[in-house]
Design brief:
Blueprint: H1 2-16, E1 19-25, H2 28-31, E2 40-47, H3 50-53, E3 62-67, E4 71-77, H4 78-86, H5 90-96, E5 101-104, H6 106-119, H7 122-140, E6 145-147, H8 148-167, H9 175-181, H10 187-200, E7 208-210, H11 213-231, H12 242-252
Parallel strand pairs: 2-4
Antiparallel strand pairs: 1-2, 1-5, 3-4, 6-7
Helix pairs in contact: 6-12, 7-8, 7-11, 8-9, 8-11
């Protein structure tokens, strides 16, 4: 599948007359808990030719395609990506730190990855992951049942909140790294979570599971806990456009 994705991206770049600087897997396959029926969520950053940026006509700065074999392609023009980068866009940071890459300009990737610590905001990160956990908890838990996919859309953000609370840095993309660093899961809750992880390897994403009352209460308590933590985090830093402007110029010229 990797070769097919790389060929698809190469053909797309030729047809659209763009240069793909970076392409990776996002979502559950990057996080490390894909189901057998998970989509291939490929995300990429691309640069247009110089004349594209010197044109007064407003043009689309995104590429979105849903292709056969459950291949979901989503790309952002470099200018759009860097503007979002400056605002601490957590989805973009996760792309850049993805453990699964398809196309990579090493010089670009090393540079943009090195800039993340200077633009990461603990309060923005906390609000992002807390909102994700809370939304999935409130919207998808019915009694004690939830789709197995949605459970991990609650657990991973909560573990990311713990990481931010402790380290004030961008959490790793991989779920396993977050889980192994956690100190807030009791042994019983950890065993329950690990059991669901094993189950997810063979279960469809819509498979319903029953959560223990203890795990449900733990999730609720964690959400409340991080809501309180978020109140004391410092405000986001002022944007520094100079390094991003230079990176943009270096890639376009």
């Amino acid at each position: 599948m990797k070769e097919h994705i790389q060929k698809t991206l190469s053909d797309l770049a030729e047809n659209e007359q763009i240069k793909i600087l970076y392409a990776c897997e996002s979502g559950s396959r990057a996080w490390g808990f894909a189901s057998p029926d998970s989509d291939w969520d490929v995300r990429f950053i691309y640069v247009n030719q110089l004349n594209w940026y010197l044109n007064l006509e407003k043009k689309s700065d995104t590429i979105d395609l849903m292709l056969p074999l459950e291949l979901d392609l989503g790309g952002w023009d470099l200018q759009k990506a860097l503007r979002l980068f400056a605002s601490c866009n957590l989805a973009l940071y996760e792309w850049i730190n993805s453990p699964k890459t398809y196309l990579i300009n090493s010089e670009f990737h090393v540079k943009i990855q090195s800039l993340i610590p200077g633009y990461f905001s603990a309060i923005k990160g906390m609000h992002h992951y807390l909102a994700m956990a809370n939304k999935n908890f409130e919207s998808h838990l019915e009694g004690t049942q939830i789709k197995i996919k949605k459970l991990f859309y609650i657990l991973r953000p909560l573990l990311a909140c713990e990481w931010i609370s402790n380290k004030k840095t961008m959490p790793p993309t991989e779920y396993q790294l977050l889980l192994s660093s956690s100190k807030r899961l009791s042994n019983d809750r950890l065993d329950e979570v690990l059991n669901f992880m094993k189950m997810k390897e063979t279960a469809a994403e819509g498979f319903l599971i029953d959560l223990s009352e203890e795990l449900i209460q733990w999730i609720s308590n964690e959400i409340d806990y991080y809501k309180n933590i978020a109140r004391d985090l410092p405000s986001a830093k002022e944007k520094d456009w100079k390094p991003l402007n230079q990176l943009f110029i270096d890639c376009v010229k």
